[in-house]
Amino acid sequence: MVIVFNPVAGRRRAALLWRVLDVLVANGVRLDVAQTHCAGHAAALAREAVAGGAPMVVAAGGDGTIAEVASVVAGTKVPLGVIPLGSANVLAHELSLPFTPRAVAAALAFRRTRRVWPGVMCAGNDKRVFVQMLSVGFDAQVVHRLQVPLKQIFGRGAYVLHSLRESIRYRYPPITVRVDGQEMQVANVIVSKGRFYGGHYLLAPDARPAEPGFSVVLFSHRGPGAMLLYGAALPVNMLGRAPGVTHMRAQRVEVVGNEAIPAQADGDAAGFTPLSVTDADGPIEVVVE
Question: Identical fold at 2-117 and 120-281?
Fold first, then answer.
């Protein structure tokens, strides 16, 4: 197997990676470790691994690293392994993946898989695969402006601190969304493949990660007060049922916006509107416990 390791995402938890590798090597598993150096490098390393006949490609990092590797193995017969080292590890929570070194190593060795059907965001010439969710609006603004050192020091707490700051600075422009052709205006939109958001916090209980299509969560209330309310609802698993929140199932989502509004995919900045969201051409097989 080839392990694609993001040292930025994993700096605070790199010891987990080395313990997993120790267990695998001790049990005779042949592996290669490839370290990323910049955004997009994980996809390039995964592409090399697939072309070289790797039986499995493992993403060791956060959800953004996983999405990069997933963009390469989607539609192939190469399974995706995960060593969760990120701040939120949303996909790991979604699929109930293990976190302890021995359990992670055992899962990778046995290679029992579960199907996940990713989404694809297209914005101009930029095409990006996401495995958990894409959003446009306030939370994407937080991701765009959050500095990496702050994220490394405080983990998920950095998002809380920066959200408080951005709740005052953000201008809350209206966002025009077309959900399977039905047009509406909202303050924020999350297009989700999974149930969870920001870690293990429930957002879209109707999500179907293994199937084509999306759970679309629309937020109609605007302004600092609304964003603080939504933020308070998140840790008690009430965000999906907060006032002004609507759920829809969809096959295609288009986000227009009257100006360039930030987007984020799987916790990484993903450009600006206008953009469209559709299903990937095929599913991926993710190694589970």
Answer: no
User: Please, are residues 265 and 277 in contact by the beta-carbon 8 Å criterion?
Assistant: no
What lies within 8 Å, CB to CB, of 65 at 6+ separation is 4, 6, 9, 36, 42, 59, 86
Distance separating alpha carbons of residues 101 and 105, to the nearest angstrom: 6
The CATH number of 120-281 is 2.60.200.40
**What's the CA gap between 119 and 43, in Å, rounded?**
16
Q: What is the pLDDT of residue 39?
A: 87
- Look at residue 289 in the predicted model and tell me its pLDDT: 84
- pLDDT for the residue numbered 257: 67
The DSSP secondary structure of 154-173, one letter per residue, reads HTHHHHHHHHHHHHHH----
Domain residue extents for the chain: 2-117, 120-281
**Which amino acid would we find at residue 174?**
P
Residue (of 248, 246, 244) closest to 226 by Cα position: 244
Instruction: For domain 2-117, give the CATH number.
Output: 3.40.50.10330
Burial class (CB in 10 A: 0-12, 13-18, 19+), 243: exposed
Residue in the structure block whose two tokens are 């609802």: 233
CB atoms within 10 A of CB 85: 26
For the whole model, what pTM was predicted? 0.93
DSSP symbol at 11: G
Report CA-CA distances (Å) from 199 to 14, 18, 34, 37, 254: 19, 23, 26, 25, 26
Paired tokens of 210: 């293994």
Blockwise average pLDDT, block size 10, the chain, 289 residues: 87 80 94 93 97 97 95 94 92 95 95 96 92 96 83 70 88 96 96 95 96 97 93 93 96 89 95 96 94
